[in-house]
# Entry
Amino acid sequence: MSRAGRRLAVCAALLAALPWVPGLDGGFARSLLTQMGIAAIFAISYNLLLGQTGLLSFGHAVYFGLGGYAAIHLLRAVNAGLPLPLPLVPLAGLAAGLVAGIAIGAVATRRAGTIFALITLGVGELVHAASLMLPAFFGGEEGVTASRTRAPHLFGLDFGSQVQVYYVVAFWLVAAALAALAFMRTPVGRMCNAVRDNPERAEFIGYNPQRIRFIACSVAAALAGLAGGLHAINYEIVTSEAVGAARSGEVLLMVYIGGVHHFAGAILGAVAITWLQVSLSDYTSAWLLYLGLFFMAIILYAPGGLAGILARHAAIVRARAAGPVMLAYAFALPAALLMIAGSATLIEIAYRLSTRPEAGARMRLFWIPMNAATPWPWIGAALVALAGYLLLKRAAPRVRAAWDLASPAEAVRG
Amino acid sequence: MAEGALRLRGVHKSFGATAIIRGVSLDVAAGERHAIIGPNGAGKSTLFNLVSGRLAPTRGSILLDGAEIAGKRAYEVSRLGLARSFQVTNIFPRMSVFENIRASLFWPLGHRYDFWRDAARLADVNERAAHTLERIGLADRRDAMAGVLTYAEQRALEIGIAIAGGAGVILLDEPTAGMSRAETEKAVELIREVTRGRTLVMVEHDMGVVFGLADRVSVLVYGEIVATGTPANIRVNEAVQSAYLGSAAHA
# Structure
């Protein structure tokens, strides 16, 4: 078996085993895994645009949402008797995404950069507004619902349980990832990178950059539509929120946090953000604030995203030069944790007093009981945060020096 | 008309009220190596931009192998068999050296908007790219990211992207700009070798390079060609000396 084939087999086996891993075999975890898979397809599609072709879109949810609506309407037809097995229903999303991508891409890709971003923003708002004005297709405020279990059974599967839906998503995730990877290896895929790097030079070697962007946009839209179709069969409902700006922003966040320049970054980002959304929101109502801060930290200090961080560390581990860096981390990490704990405490007590005054001022944070009505938790938390900050400031040059030592070339490239 | 021939007739280019190119007519025969020299601001780069489709002429005609290319887009001109390099290095910085060359081969070898086949399996493209890397001396830098190459290496890659596709006419805009003497000598050898059997038009400031490489030289001053001739002719032409060569010839 070839190396690529082995990798594929390992990934497929991993995806197949995940919902049976202890801790992930519950209903909640399986639902989370399903959402991660859908988000991963959406992020892979967005990475084709942003990471590979250099097109920043603020309206990628349009394709996701239209794909979702197409799939939910098809599912309704299946409920009414159309003999189509459920795992194929998301293909309606793929088709709808492709059609929308061709239509919108033909206009939007006339320009790149800021103009492209603004056009996608406008189209996103337009489609979102239309979704509320055309209830016949979009179902108005309530959205469109259907049932995934009232469909022809495939090999005796009724898709009533979460794990069966998970496998449908996992199958399409592998298919989408393979399709995206294969596309990037074709001449047009290579030219996507060329147009991203230098659209002008691409013209002088025979290519119309607009056409390359158009093809990338269409392919990305089709994959986003597929993700939307899976979203539809997972939730059995699609509302106008699926085409909304919030979802467009979310996928941008995922791809950026995961790492724009790595294919795996999209998947990493999708997994990380979905997990944060679902689990962090259980702990704190300020989770969106934390997500925003996390995003800013990545943009400022690790523009390569999570994948970039992993790749850089893997490089120095392979070069057997990680020792000094790890030692420097041993100083920096406790300092960073201290700063985060102090700041988080400040945020939490402020949030408690301003958003849930009825819950009272007495609370327990990091296993410490405190009363937010007195100044002491504020002073204490501020001191902890300050101490963490000062220690981190002292540790930072150490980390930088260790990195310079570990990989001079890396340091130059920054 | 033979392949690789370029014919300019009454080409004008103005930016607003400012005339930069003021009626250039020029014939470059197929297989000829033609140098364009002239003082800074004479319009040499603008002339290249007009011929290669980066800019559209205000009026005038540009024929490539007898076909009108004035006002065509850069990719259309490129597809007709005219390739160019740039004075300021203009490569694909986040792609590998090999990928840079390979990208310039897809269209000329007919793979165009193919989004079906794996580029790694296109034997014609990969062999030709590897061969081009050998010729430009970057074979051992094949997998390096183009953006981290040294300046001289980037200049070599710049020329490689222009010549890889086998275009009949090649425009090189100051190919040796910023190079040391040793690097320049290597570059001249490279240019001589890779343009064998093709038509070359180049802008160059280094008179050693010009007189060593060119079959004919044109002198562009304030948007007009004041003289065209063999290097020997140009060297002794008085109009040229007063307009331009004066200081450079004695330098």
